[in-house]
């Protein structure tokens, strides 16, 4: 690539050359004049002797010009002509690459959006999320302390999830959004689209800032772009709040996957939720995100050390509530809780997508090699006529690049369509979860790069073949004579490709099987035939004292509905989207109630007496609760088996033992229930305990489980009527428990879906690969097959001759792929629940799939081989 | 005289002669022309300008290198010098040229063996 620097050198070359030529003519003139010629004569003679200087200069310059531009165009034209001549090959190749590059672009688009792309705010590079490493989340007082005591951040803002009942005068609804500290928008540098946003100056102590900021999408969809909303008063959980403004459309928040509808000042939390002193409770860890800009010149490690110093000091000051907290800094947007699994999963996907591209390249490489050997006569002629080998290779590479660029463009277009669709997709109505994967320039660039690299990759496969070609031999013998029995590069490529596809098919079957199992797995409850009713008595305005009797009335009212078998009440249903309570539990003999001394951090549920029957959770030992287990009675609990094993010592003697909660309450275990899944279907077995709802502080948000022998879907009307009879203004959300589970199944389903799609792509690629190979070998040997048929070969023998090799390669490749796939599936087991490769159904499935793929792919070539008519063939040449 | 110069030299001949001249000593363009004409007893009359595209080709192929300097006659000149790869190239060219010449001579004078 001499031309790159020579572009910049051109000026110098030109001036050197004209100077040189001028001096040359001058010297000649002087010479002639010294021989006695007049200056005029000398000038004339010198010029004649030199020739046309501008032509000389032109020819000299041509030497340095980029000589290939024109010949490249010629190559492109020639390549297009060649490709037009074999449309089947071209379409198959472009289609293969479209799938492979498209898959890569989609996965990279997700990777780019979720992991690489910073939050869309000014100066995002110095913006960090502060992640507590021991506890998942922080408390508001802890945030205040961190903010006040650190020396490395210019400011720190905090964010908490919030669901409120928003009443704008009509159609009150419960919507999701964020509670943010007053400095949130200032820390991020976000400016309003409309009106203004809130600032620290709006806060003058608790409950002092009754303001709400709407996000652009919510304003757009619910206020229909009405600019008059600023200053309007709406009701948030029945309290008047003033709409301050609207955030800009391109600000999508700092918490990925979650599209908020509003921002409320965190200082008003207690007012909204009626929980006095709740926000300032150090044990209430509701802050899901802490973010801030590092001060200029401060290194990450410095900031971490600084935060850890504060953490140590806090643990000393508040030994009962604050554990020894450590911090690390991460990218905002993808919170650390989600970050690890998401990163692992996206990386695994990227790897598989890369494999697909590799398989596609192997596929196209062998097709190209086949083509090159078909064209060996043409190549030989060109060599014999004096073409250079580089020139011929360049032409082959041009063809490869044309195909890869076309495939890349098609793949990119497809991936953009997929990403756009994914970007607007909201998998759950009512919960603003979305996957923000709008493609950007990075995605385009990567697709282009992949196209070029893969073009070069499969383009160089035939290089050796061309370099080695001996024009004399080939012209003499013809290309057909080269069908050897030895192992060729094409065979190796095909085996590689099938092996890769085998890996993909195995991986996707393992994933799908894991999903199927997890869907029918044992959750420790039976979600079928159960209707969930979600209400919030605190939002509705009930005082703490009036909540328990209302709950009792609601349960009784539902119990009276015809068809209802059991009615249970629970703080949060297990595997629900509301999350779960967790509590530190201590052994009975513990007196040191610091978090570091806890026996375990266990799931905790407040339940009504009939909950176990409504949920279908089996009581293994002891007794359930009754309405008599109230505040006047001794504190009691049910534990799951895991709790009994890991905290109480043994499941056999669990009933009758005691344990303590962080406030020192001594609780007697009166029963043991079966194990279950609580937060995620993929979690390892966790301890959990259940306490009577009547012994707890009154619940705000509560879930009622209505189990019925009939289809509970038909009950919604009568259930609603029964509850409305108690309170007509009560917000009620009803859905089937199985639907609710969709939420916790979502990651596993997405994982299996994406793996399934990649597996299908792999299968498709192996079909095209085997098909290409089989079709090629049949067409190469049509004449031979014709002779065989003419000599009386049976169908079986013809098939064996035509396809034996393809089938053998397929078998070898599949075996290798299956083996590698099983190894790779160990990695999958981390991502997909219950994914195990040692599953006979998976093994059988892979073998069956590969056999089917082989059959499908060799079907047409086999038909062609069988339909050989020796007469026509032998007449041909 | 004009008869003999009107015929083109075969491709590469000029470059070969330039390289051979430079092998003896570095020279600038004018001196190269003089040298080639003198050495060929004026049988080869190269159009002086045609030297320059040839020199550019050699420069590009890194067979020669050029440097601005001052000549013995105190003129500003661009002096060309043969490189190591230029030397190698020259040797190959000469030997293949000699073989070709031998072949042509055999065809033109059948029966006679070339003067050796």
Describe the protein's architecture and organization.
The complex is a heterodimer of chains A (877) and B (116). By secondary structure, chain A is of the alpha+beta class. Chain A folds into five domains: 3-66; 72-117 and 340-482, no CATH class; 124-332, no CATH class; 501-523 and 743-877, no CATH class; 530-710, no CATH class. Helix content of chain A is 52%, strand content 15%. Chain A has 27 helices and 21 strands. Chain A has a six-stranded mixed β-barrel with strand order 2-3-8-5-7-6. A six-stranded mixed barrel of chain A has the order 13-14-19-16-18-17. In chain A, α6 packs across α10 and α11 (336-374) packs antiparallel against α17. Chain B is of the alpha+beta class and 116 residues long. Chain B contains five helices and three strands; from the N terminus they run ααβααββα. In chain B, β2 (64-70) and β3 (76-82) form a beta hairpin. In chain B, α2 (13-24) crosses α5. Chain B starts with a helix and ends in an 8-residue tail after the last helix. Mean pLDDT of chain B is 81; it is low at 1-7. Chain A binds chain B through residues 2, 16-17, 19-21, 23-24, 27-28, 49-53, 55-57, 59-64, and chain B through 28-30, 47-50, 52-53, 55-57, 60, 66, 68, 75-78.
SSE blueprint and pairings:
The complex is a heterodimer of chains A (877) and B (116).
Chain A: H1 3-34, H2 39-50, H3 53-64, H4 68-85, H5 87-116, E1 127-132, H6 140-149, E2 153-167, E3 173-180, H7 184-188, E4 194-195, E5 211-214, H8 216-222, E6 233-236, E7 239-246, E8 262-265, H9 269-273, E9 287-294, H10 300-317, E10 327-330, H11 336-374, H12 376-384, H13 389-424, H14 441-459, H15 463-468, H16 471-477, H17 489-519, E11 530-536, H18 537-540, H19 547-559, E12 564-570, E13 581-587, E14 600-607, H20 611-615, E15 619-622, E16 636-640, H21 641-646, E17 658-661, E18 666-673, E19 688-692, E20 701-708, H22 716-724, E21 733-736, H23 737-780, H24 782-790, H25 795-831, H26 840-866, H27 870-876
Helix pairs in contact in A: 1-2, 1-3, 4-13, 5-11, 5-13, 5-14, 5-23, 6-10, 11-14, 11-17, 11-23, 12-16, 13-14, 17-23, 17-25, 17-26, 23-25, 23-26, 24-27, 25-26
Chain B: H1 2-6, H2 13-24, E1 27-28, H3 29-39, H4 51-60, E2 64-70, E3 76-82, H5 84-108
Antiparallel strand pairs in B: 1-3, 2-3
């Amino acid at each position: 690539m001499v031309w790159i620097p020579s572009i910049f050198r051109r000026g110098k070359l030109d001036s050197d050359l004209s100077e040189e030529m001028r001096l040359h003519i001058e010297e000649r003139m002087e010479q002639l004049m010294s021989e006695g010629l007049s200056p005029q004569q000398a000038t004339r003679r010198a010029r004649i002797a030199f020739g046309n200087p501008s032509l000389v200069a032109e020819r000299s310059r041509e030497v340095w010009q980029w000589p290939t531009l024109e010949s490249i165009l010629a190559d492109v034209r020639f390549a297009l002509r060649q490709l037009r001549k074999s449309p089947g090959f071209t379409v198959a190749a472009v289609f293969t690459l479209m799938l492979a590059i498209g898959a890569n672009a989609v996965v990279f688009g997700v990777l780019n959006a979720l992991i690489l792309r910073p939050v869309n705010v000014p100066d995002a590079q110095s913006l960090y999320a502060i992640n507590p490493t021991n506890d998942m989340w922080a408390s508001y007082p802890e945030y205040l302390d961190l903010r006040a005591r650190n020396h490395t951040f210019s400011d720190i803002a905090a964010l908490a999830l919030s669901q409120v009942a928003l009443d704008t005068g009509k159609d009150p609804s419960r919507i999701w959004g964020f509670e943010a500290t007053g400095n949130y928008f200032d820390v991020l540098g976000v400016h309003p689209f409309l009106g203004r946003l809130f600032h620290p100056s709006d806060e003058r102590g608790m409950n002092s800032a009754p303001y709400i900021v709407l996000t652009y999408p919510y304003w757009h969809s619910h206020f229909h772009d009405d600019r008059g909303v600023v200053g309007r008063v709406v009701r948030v959980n029945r309290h008047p709040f003033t709409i301050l403004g609207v955030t800009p459309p391109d600000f999508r928040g700092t918490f990925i996957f979650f599209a908020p509808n509003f921002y409320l000042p965190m200082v008003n939390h207690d007012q909204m939720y009626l929980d006095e002193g709740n926000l300032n409770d150090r044990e209430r860890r509701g802050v899901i995100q802490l973010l801030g800009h590092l001060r200029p010149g401060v290194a990450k490690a410095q900031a971490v050390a600084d935060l850890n110093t504060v953490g140590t000091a806090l643990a000393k000051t508040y030994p009962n509530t604050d554990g020894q907290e450590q911090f690390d800094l991460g990218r905002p947007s993808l919170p650390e809780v989600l970050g690890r699994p998401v990163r692992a999963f996206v990386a695994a996907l990227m790897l598989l997508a890369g494999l697909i591209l590799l398989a596609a390249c192997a596929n196209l490489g062998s097709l190209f090699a086949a083509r090159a050997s078909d064209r060996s006569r043409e190549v030989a002629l060109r060599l014999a006529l004096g073409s250079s080998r580089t020139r011929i290779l360049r032409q082959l590479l041009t063809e490869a690049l044309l195909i890869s660029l076309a495939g890349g463009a098609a793949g990119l277009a497809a991936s953009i369509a997929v990403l756009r669709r994914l970007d607007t997709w909201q998998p759950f109505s009512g919960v603003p979860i979305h996957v923000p994967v709008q493609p950007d320039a990075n995605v385009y660039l990567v697709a282009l790069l992949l196209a070029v690299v893969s073009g070069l990759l499969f383009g160089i496969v035939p290089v050796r073949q061309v370099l080695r070609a001996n024009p004399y031999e080939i012209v003499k013998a013809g290309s057909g004579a080269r069908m050897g029995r030895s192992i060729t590069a094409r065979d190796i490529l095909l085996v590689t490709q099938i092996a890769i596809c085998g890996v993909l098919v195995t991986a996707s079957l393992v994933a799908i099987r894991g999903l199927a199992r997890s869907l029918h797995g044992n959750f420790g409850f039976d979600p079928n035939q159960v209707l969930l009713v979600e209400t919030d008595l605190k939002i509705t305005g009930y005082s703490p004292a009036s909540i328990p009797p209302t709950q009792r009335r609601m349960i009784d009212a539902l119990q009276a509905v015809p068809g209802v078998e059991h009615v249970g009440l629970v703080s949060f249903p297990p595997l629900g989207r509301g999350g779960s309570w967790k509590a530190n539990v201590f052994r009975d003999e513990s007196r040191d109630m610091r978090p570091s001394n806890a026996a375990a951090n266990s799931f905790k549920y407040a339940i009504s007496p009939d909950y176990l029957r409504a949920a279908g959770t089996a009581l293994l030992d002891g007794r359930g609760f009754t309405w008599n287990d109230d505040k006047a009675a001794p504190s009691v609990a049910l534990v799951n088996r895991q709790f009994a094993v890991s905290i109480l010592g043994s499941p056999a003697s669990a009933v009758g033992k005691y344990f303590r909660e962080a406030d020192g309450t001594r609780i007697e275990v009166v029963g043991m229930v079966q194990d279950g899944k609580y937060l995620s279907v993929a979690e390892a077995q966790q301890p959990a305990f259940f306490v009577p709802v009547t012994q707890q502080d009154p619940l705000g948000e509560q879930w009622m489980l209505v189990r019925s022998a009939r289809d509970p879907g038909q009950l919604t009307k009568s259930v609603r009527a029964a509850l409305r009879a108690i309170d007509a203004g009560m917000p009620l959300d009803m859905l089937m428990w199985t639907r609710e589970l969709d939420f916790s199944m979502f990651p596993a389903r997405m994982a299996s879906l994406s793996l399934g799609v990649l597996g299908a792509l792999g299968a498709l690629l192996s079909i095209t690969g085997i098909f290409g190979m089989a079709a090629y070998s049949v067409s190469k040997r049509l004449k031979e097959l014709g002779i065989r048929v003419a000599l009386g070969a049976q169908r079986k023998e013809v098939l064996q001759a035509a396809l034996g090799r393809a089938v053998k390669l397929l078998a070898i490749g599949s075996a290798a792929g299956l083996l590698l796939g099983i190894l790779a599936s160990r990695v999958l087991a981390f991502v997909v629940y219950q994914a195990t490769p040692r599953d006979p159904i998976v093994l059988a499935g892979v073998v069956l799939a590969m056999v089917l793929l082989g059959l499908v792919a060799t079907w047409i070539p086999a038909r062609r081989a069988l339909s050989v008519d020796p007469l026509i063939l032998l007449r041909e040449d | 005289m004009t008869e003999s110069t009107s015929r083109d030299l075969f491709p590469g001949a000029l470059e070969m002669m330039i390289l051979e001249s430079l092998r003896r000593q570095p020279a600038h363009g004018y001196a190269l022309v003089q040298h080639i004409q003198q050495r060929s007893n004026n049988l080869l009359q190269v159009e002086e300008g045609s030297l320059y595209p040839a020199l550019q080709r050699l420069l590009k192929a890194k067979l020669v290198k050029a440097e601005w300097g001052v000549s013995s006659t105190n003129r500003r000149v661009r002096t060309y010098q043969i490189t190591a790869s230029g030397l190698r190239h020259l040797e190959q060219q000469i030997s293949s040229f000699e073989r070709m010449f031998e072949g042509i001579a055999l065809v033109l004078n059948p029966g006679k063996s070339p003067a050796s």
